[in-house]
Amino acid sequence: MREYYRYKFHVRPNIFNPILYGGRLFQQFAVDTYIKIESSRLDFIWNHQKEIRADLYQGLLDSIHAGQDRGDAVGKQTVLSSSFIGGPRDKMRRYLDAMALVRKYGKPDIFLTMTCNPNWEEITNELEVGQTPQDRPDLVFRVFRAKLEEMKKELLEKHMLGKVKAYTYVVEFQKRGLPHAHFLLIMTGKYKLTCPEQYDRLISAELPNKQKYPELYKMVIKHMMHGPCGTLNRNCACTKNRKSCKNYYPRPFNATTIQGKDSYPLYRRRDDGHNEIVRGHKLDNRWVVPYNPYLLQMFNCHINVEVCSSIKAVKYLYKYIYKGHDRASVCVNGTSEKEDIDEIRQYRDARWVTPPEALWRIYGFELSKTNPPVMQLQLHLPNMHMVSYHGKKEITEVINREGVEKSMLTAYFEANKIHEKARSILYRNFPEHYTWQTQGKFWQQRKRKTLYQVGRIVSAHPAEGERYYLRVLLNHVKGTTCYEDLRTVDGQILPSFREAAERRGLIEADNTLDDCLTEAELFRMPSLLRRLFATILVFCEPHDIRALWNNHIEAMSEDYRRNCKNAKMVEQMVLINIREMLQSMGKDIRSFPLPEINEQNDTKDNTPREITEEANIEVDPEDMELPKHLNDEQKAAYNEILTAIDRDEGGLFFVDGPGGTGKTFLYRALLATVRGQGKIALATATSGVAASIMPGGRTAHSRFKIPLRIDDGAICSFTKQSGTAKLLQTASLIIWDEASMTKRQAIEALDKSMRDIMDIPNLPFGGKTVVFGGDFRQVLPVVRKGTRSQIVDASLRRSELWNCMRHMKLVRNMRAQNDPWFAEYLLRIGNGSEETNDKGEIRLPKNICIPRTMDDSGLDRLIDSVYQMNSACLEDPNYITSRAILSTRNDCVDRINLKMIERFQGEEMVYHSFDSVEDDPHNYYPPEFLNTLTPNGLPPHMLKLKINCPIILLRNIDPANGLCNGTRLVVRGFQKNAIDAEIVLGQHYGTRVFLPRIPLCPSDDEMFPFRFKRKQFPVRLSFAMTINKAQGQTIPNVGIYLPEPVFSHGQLYVALSRATTTKNIKILTAENDDEDEDNKHDNKIEPSEKNKKRKKKEDKKRHVR
């Protein structure tokens, strides 16, 4: 039927076709024709439900509904198979295919929408006299498809927007009939868009220059102006029944492009006075829809180009899968009534088909495409795969047929038996290396590596039980040769896939927290066990706290029972100790269902916990001797600050000095002197690493309760009656190190709060003595995808408080005093006075550079130069903490850490996180996709550890006892649910701690379209760390890995200035196109005035030439 109507609708020269001259009748005929074709297919499906349902329940199709394999849970069910284009299973399958690409290649970078222009010349030139484009839907859809193919050539072959690694697109039809296409492009690493400057090179949201680009100007006015809507036109579709435009037009003016708070940037829209009359109203840059000038001028139609960098766009592409397909399949109240589910009727009801869509489908053109192609891999329990046979065949004949027992999954098991290479490949990655042969039902190794295919195991919902847990195992376990291998853990064959997944740590067991405490009991450290119990109460969301208490009170009280035989008294002692630990974590024991503490046993006074903790900080005798060893610059600052404290006159000070000039040395001397006088001195820093170096150091955010998301006008989140407020009122000195890398809004928030609690609104910080320290040559505040002006605006120097500070400069480099040339070299880089070439690159000394290579051998040499892999060195915590490899990006750091842990000797443990999305009952985000996400500040899904390996803490767990974000530790032991670690840096050096898995959520800056939760140990390996994380500490032996130029102010300076001498520093930089040149690298430091003038003169000469 389809071929017949294609023939009838075809245009033939010199042959009159009355159908094409029917106007509205042609439109009606086209729609009726497609409905007939579709209805015949739907009728076939209706009459063959037994076959379709059998196919579905064998586990070969994606599961749309939770628990749909339970036939007794629903009444009569009529389903649409995934082969029916546009049905619910088809859309779910395509959505999951798109998510498979995101899992493999990362989040999309560009979201492009192309809409048909009915006035294209190719359409209007073919119209007969008196015809309009809507009279010829055949021309409209044919020309749009031709333009779409040309667009694909521009994007995918000519790489107009950059080289595309993977893409997916879908064609949709508006209610008014015009087709449009949505593209999602995932770019290769080199072409990924990471900053506003790159956005501006591809995308414009402004009216172009009318005199310079007259044709482009006309097209922008015609195709890319939104509205007018809102108050200018209440009848506009985007404003109907609303107070304002649902698309947020008019957008605000912006002098520069900035990263917005949602998925899309706020593009540059300058208030330049340009406007144009559009549909009777004056519209300016605020009404321009973002576009690419080249593509707009080439295709002359509405082409919206957006930087998305979010998986939210994938969800948008297949938005219709969320509507109505599963509304009757979930029974919540347990009623015995059974409802009929008729997906065919649901699909037909209120179906809207336009003439271009009808013709598009009649001609069988693609409605969507994903590339690389995605192969759906079968998933079924043992002996439950699909078997196709003729209805009249004898059952015994079917069972005995050759190959009837084979499926993709069983053939995967067989391939693992035969091919050694196959045993190192996960089932989902098999199509990348092997091709599926349908004739013989076996996997054959790929001969042509240029062909590529992504695998995806068909989905399963957790409510499906064993099939879901089988899928979890297949996503993590390699080299299995049968189902029993998947159920075998530590040599024991377990009865179910669920138990095997639990035992492997791939899913969270119901008794995980109980097991965590039980495992920790093996170390026989009751005090650490009590602290672990307190940590679990605060961070791990336990369901049955009283059961945990009853099960482990005996082990937690073992040390108390040695000296006291009274069980009640022992219990009270344990409760009081746990209360103190909870208080140090900012919690009250009364908020947990634990036994009450008797008043007669309670020796607690009314002094706030915060004051008690600070008063109990012991002053190291060696620190009391530090004032004697201060140099002249340090001594002058020390005396001036102490004078302000002694006279109680207050004041703000800023200690400014390059890295290595002894700022931390000065802080320690001040802290020891003030504390030695019995006064309270608070030591804080912007980063956890810098805070851990100072005695009693805390991160400023945790000490002052500064909100994580902070804007102008914010205040700290403590009340005037709180312990924190009383501590600040009592403190004689407050030190805030690395203030140069914190946002000024955080410092201003503390200022506002302290003026309030001190009741002195006219003096900065309520008249307290506050010492800030930092170096503006180093890394400035992090503004996610911010411009240079935004980063500068966020710095302390742009605050009104800056002019209230007394500035003290430290110049003499104490860290590199044995290498004066290195100290001068660092200062030149920091000041921007080091000679640069035309590209702004500096020349690195040859003796610190490792030769570049095309493979990993250069990185291996860098690792060898920093770490010696012998057991004597690796067991020494001082050796581990005295060296590190620094890099700019987290992915580079993760790569080095993985290399290092593979080389590291010792017993290994691999911990998998438990990832979930809150409010996702339909399982739209597959677990294997969530596993690939590693947001900033969260541990990886797969955490590989070995005894004595270095780790860094990622959360403030117990800052008062040394467990704050940035604390460096060494692993001393581990169980499946607990890690035994030792603090190896700072005041709490040598302290042993137990760490449990805790639920972690990324910051709002990650802009996920869902609430992501990862339950994992809050640590990362720290053989390597980011340059930003290392700021503030001395690292005697440094390796620097720069596969690409530094991208932020001060990064190169910070990396180099961590070391003490050129002998202890090695750098591996990106490969340079000019192999004859020495190692060069971007500096990203504002050049000095001298260099600016020189460069200006050179530019002028080049211009004259």
Automatic annotation (TrEMBL):
InterPro entries, sorted: DNA_helicase_pif1-like_DEAD (IPR010285), Helitron_helicase-like (IPR025476), P-loop_NTPase (IPR027417), Pif1-like_2B_dom (IPR049163)
Region feature Disordered, mapped onto this chain: 1069-1105
Basic and acidic residues: compositionally biased ranges: 1078-1090
Residue ranges annotated for the DNA helicase Pif1-like 2B domain, each copy included: 928-974
E.C. number(s) listed in UniProt: 5.6.2.3
GO biological process, one term: DNA recombination
Signal peptide: none
Database matches in Gene3D superfamilies: P-loop containing nucleotide triphosphate hydrolases
Compositionally biased spans, kind Basic residues: 1091-1105
Protein name: ATP-dependent DNA helicase
Organism: Setaria italica (Foxtail millet)
